[in-house]
Design goal:
The structure is a single chain. Helix content is 42%, strand content 10%. It is mainly alpha-helical and 233 residues long. It has 3 domains: 68 residues, no CATH class; 102 residues, no CATH class; 51 residues, no CATH class. A hairpin with a 3-residue loop joins strand 1 and strand 2.
């Protein structure tokens, strides 16, 4: 299994104090694999599941024997609820990125420490180009004026899904995607959002939906992508 820089790699300690880097199975694969294993005799079912588990291990290459508790980690690391939350955040994050592409990589810590304009995605600087340190004035999120919402429960991507989205951008631009079920699932979610936006745009006669900071060029056509915070077609 290759390392994929999309935020979905996991590190866990398994039996014998060994550290394992792996990619969990998506829910659909896990359910089907366990169902098939249960239809086989016990030794064959175990061998079947172990073979699948080994295909998800990134490091070490030679892991040795996998015990039942090890298999439980690989097959059960992500609960169905957690995977659903990941998918819903990815979907909402893409919608947010289409409307506010300049805010994808903005950290709330920037705005809390410095005078920062979330509406423009940049620091406010003096005549010499030096940023202003924030004083005691309320933050925009505290007055309800920041598109990201309050820093305690901000909108947009989780850190993991921000990496997943940036990884999708790079794959989209090169036309090369890793052969991985998590990558395929996430790409499907992103494309679903883009296709939905295109359908709404066509239904509206090609006019942009209202929204501050939204770039109206559709990124889901052939070769289109969201590149470095800007939507390109």
């Amino acid at each position: 299994m290759e390392f994929i820089p999309d935020g979905y790699n996991r590190v866990a300690e398994i039996s014998g104090g060994r550290k394992l880097v792996f990619r969990p199975l998506v829910r659909e694969s896990r359910v089907q694999a366990v169902g098939i294993a249960r239809s086989l005799d016990k030794p064959t079912g175990w061998s079947f599941l172990e073979e699948i588990a080994r295909t998800r291990i990134i490091h070490p290459r030679e892991i040795g024997d996998l015990l039942p508790e090890d298999m439980k980690i690989i097959f059960g690391q992500d609960s169905s609820a957690a995977q659903l939350a990941d998918v819903e955040n990815l979907r909402a994050g893409v919608e947010f990125a289409l409307q506010y592409p300049h805010l994808i990589d903005v950290e709330c810590s920037q705005c809390r420490a410095w005078w920062f304009s979330p509406l423009e995605g940049r620091l406010v600087r003096d005549a010499d180009g030096k940023p202003y340190r924030r004083t005691d004035e309320p933050l925009l999120c505290e007055t309800g004026d920041c598109p990201l919402g309050h820093y305690s429960s901000r909108k947009g991507f989780t850190p993991k899904n921000r990496l997943a989205f940036r990884h999708w951008q790079r794959c989209k631009l090169t036309g090369v995607f890793p052969d991985d079920e998590i990558v395929r699932r996430n790409a499907g979610v992103i494309q679903e959002v883009l296709d939905g936006r295109r359908s709404r745009k066509l239904a509206g006669g090609g006019r942009a939906a209202a929204g501050s900071g939204r770039d109206d060029r559709f990124p889901g056509n052939a070769g289109g992508a969201i590149r470095g915070g800007a939507v390109t077609a």
